[in-house]
Specification:
With 147 residues, the protein is mainly alpha-helical. 71% of the residues lie in helices and 0% in strands. The chain is built from 5 helices and no strands.
Length: 147
Amino acid sequence: MAKLTKAQREWRPGMPKKRRSTKVMFASTVLLLEAFVVLFGTLTVFGLRRDEFPPVLIFSVGIGLALVYVFTCAVLTKPWGVALGWILQIVLILTGFLEPAMFLVGGLFAVAWWYGIRTGIRIDREAAQREREQAAWDAAHPEDLSN
């Protein structure tokens, strides 16, 4: 049997489920898509420039960079996680020096990252406001909760 997480061990019936951050979900989606783009970009650089760079270097840098994108998803809840995501956006744009099409792809992903972070923050703020209003209403109307 798989080992339970801390949240799973501490769960009791009737406990409300903690709401996931929309910002983190949007940012994780962008980062995972970028990881796939980096892997396919690695194959492109290998196919076009294997005479200029050793294949071991191309694949180790490409796969390592893709793993950094994936592992960044795990730290997006930390204060520095989004900053690391911005750094990775710049790195993706800079891969355009190896394959010029990546300037466009990296730029489009940077726009998607910005939009996902901005929209996610707005949605999270609105959801927190709704939760506060619902809690206030529930406190003001306890008789309606007994149904």
